[in-house]
Design a protein that fits this description.
- It is built from 7 helices and 7 strands; from the N terminus they run H-H-E-H-E-H-E-E-H-E-E-H-E-H.
- It is of the alpha/beta class.
- The protein has a single domain, classed as NAD(P)-binding Rossmann-like Domain (Rossmann fold, 3-Layer(aba) Sandwich), CATH 3.40.50.720.
- It has a 7-stranded mixed β-sheet with strand order 3-2-1-4-5-7-6, with helices on both faces.
- Strand 2, helix 4 and strand 3 form a beta-alpha-beta unit.
- The longest helix is centred in the last third of the chain and has 22 residues.
């Protein structure tokens, strides 16, 4: 009987599939985009996932988040996500941290323990802390910019933050990263013309975190980020090639 990841192995080959089985990835923010990133990486057979989010699932997230269901309302996002991932692959190592990532909590995390970091945190202040810490530790990462009120999935892009001209969060981060001497950062952003929703009174990055979004946009963004993570880890061979396999795909 074919193993859980045998079809993927036909596409990537055994060497790259094994590289993913060694990979240790951390996802900071398990919201609309982060939930789809997490789901895709689990189904790509990564060896270890660390999930960081202090929030609980609410009813208004059903339209945008993968793990948001009626039965999950009020439950910890990372707890629900962790249980779901283990149901996909019982051998995956899942570490759940029900805590915010801020300047105060940053010392709790050893970022060098990860081969790749995905940032889908909502506000620029916490994103900046994570980006600076990852840069200082030399850990590869991808950061998701603000996608509120966007609907055109064909306008989603992955590029350096210097190309993200529409996003107010990217604008704030570029200024701060320049001060910190960080000249490059891979980000996902939308090149769609920005529109204001009824709840978005002004262009304030902090206020747009809870603004409008729709599942096919957050879902596509999450899958595109997962694609980049897989490409970076398998094409560069940086997924701890000499580390023993966490498990062999198909060996149950």
């Amino acid at each position: 009987m074919p193993g859980a990841f045998s079809h993927m192995e036909l596409v990537l080959g055994r060497q790259k599939t094994d590289a993913l089985a060694r990979a240790r990835i951390a996802v900071f923010g398990i919201g609309g985009v982060g939930s789809f990133v997490t789901e895709a990486l689990a189904r790509c057979g990564v060896g270890s996932l660390t999930l960081v989010d202090h929030d609980v699932i609410s009813e208004d997230e059903i339209c945008r988040q993968l793990y948001a269901t009626r039965s999950a309302i009020g439950k910890s996002k990372v707890s629900v996500a962790g249980d779901h991932i283990r149901d996909i692959d019982e051998n995956i190592l899942v570490h759940c941290y029900e805590t915010p990532y801020t300047k105060q909590t940053a010392p709790l995390f050893d970022l060098t323990a990860y081969d790749y970091i995905v940032d889908t945190l909502p506000g620029p202040e916490d994103k900046l802390v994570l980006i600076e810490e990852a840069n200082a530790k030399g850990v590869k990462m991808l950061s998701c910019m603000c996608l509120n009120h966007f609907t055109d999935t064909s306008r989603l892009r992955v590029a350096d933050i210097s190309r993200a001209s529409v996003c107010p969060v990217a604008k704030t981060l570029r200024t701060e990263l320049k001060k910190a001497g960080i000249r490059s950062l891979k980000v996902l952003f939308s090149s769609e013309a920005r529109r204001k929703g009824r709840t978005e009174a002004k262009e304030n990055p902090e206020e747009t975190a809870a603004a409008g979004s729709i599942c096919y946009l957050t879902g596509t963004a999450g899958l595109l980020i997962a694609r980049e993570v897989v490409r970076d880890l398998t094409d560069s061979g940086e997924a701890a090639v000499k580390r023993p396999l966490i498990r062999r795909h198909g060996d149950r």
